[in-house]
Amino acid sequence: MMSSAELSDQELVYLDWNNALEVLEKAYKAGLFVLIIGPKGTGKTTLVRKFASTMNKDLHSVNFSLRTRESHLVGTKTVEHGQISFVEGVLVKSMRSGSMLYLDELNAAEADVLLRLDEALDDRRQLVLKEAEGQTIKATADWFVIATINPLSHVGTKELPPQLLSRFPVRMRLEYPPEELELEIVKRHVKLDESKIRSIKHAIQLARNLREAAAVEELYYSPSLRETIAYAKMLNAGLSARHAAEVVYANAYDQWGQVEYQKVMDMITSIFGDK
Questions:
Q1: Domain residues of the chain, as ranges?
Q2: What is the pLDDT of residues 176-235, one digit of tens each?
Q3: Which fold has domain 4-173?
Q4: This prediction's pTM
Q5: Which long-range contacts link 182-186 to residues 24+ away (Cβ below 8 Å)?
C-alpha cells in the first residue's frame, strides 16, 4: 500500500487537460467505480495517485499480469511456529479499511483472478473467504475502486468479461496530451534551458508521428510520455539532439527488424536532419 502522503512531488505532477479529476470526484461522491482506458504512458497511474492525494485517501494498488494470483488479492494461509494464520491480500485490506483500490492493467489478469474480483465488485460489495473458514468481508461505505486497462493492441491484454465491465459504469478515455501540454509536462520533470526547447519540440513531434503510425498498425510500438522525458534528460546529459532521438526512440524498433527500424530512422532524419 502507498499512502498519498508518501508520494513525492514529482509523482504528483499531473496536468489535468481533460478534467479527469472532476469526473473522478463526482464518481466517488456517487459511489460509482471508474474504469480508465488508454495506452501506456498517458499518465493513468499519476492521475490515480493525484486523485488519492486530493481526496486524502490511502491507496492500495495491484498491477496485474499473468503472474497475478488470487492469493495476491484475497490472501493466503501461512504456518508460523505451528500456528495457522491467514494473511489478508490487498483486496481484503482495502475493503476493510475503506481505502482507494487501484487495479492497474486489469485486462492483463487471468480469468480466475477476474472471477474472484467480480465477486467483491458487485452491488453487495462483499467477499466470502473460502480460504478463511468462509468468513464474509463487507466493504466500508467509502470504499472506492479505480481500474485501468490498455488497448487490446498491447501485448498480454484481452477483453474484459461483460459482467466485470459492468462493475465500472463510469468509463474515462485518456489520450496523449496536446503537443504544448506535453512540453509543459516535460518541463515539470526536467529542468531545461531555452537552448534545448527546440529539440524537445522536435522529439514531441517525432513521438506523435510514431504514435499515429502505431495507431494504424504501420509500426509495432507507441512511445509514451516517459520517452519524451527520457529524451530531455539525455539532452541535459550532453547527448546531441539526433543521437538522443536514436537511442531513446529508434533503437527500440530494432527488435522488429531492419525495415521497422529504418522507418523510424527516416522519420528522425526528416525532423532532425542528417548526422
A1: 4-173, 179-272
A2: 889 999 999 899 889 999 999 999 999 999 999 999 998 888 998 889 899 999 999 999
A3: Rossmann fold (3.40.50)
A4: 0.82
A5: 182/207, 182/225, 182/228, 184/15, 185/13, 185/15, 185/43, 185/225, 185/228, 185/229, 186/228, 186/229, 186/232
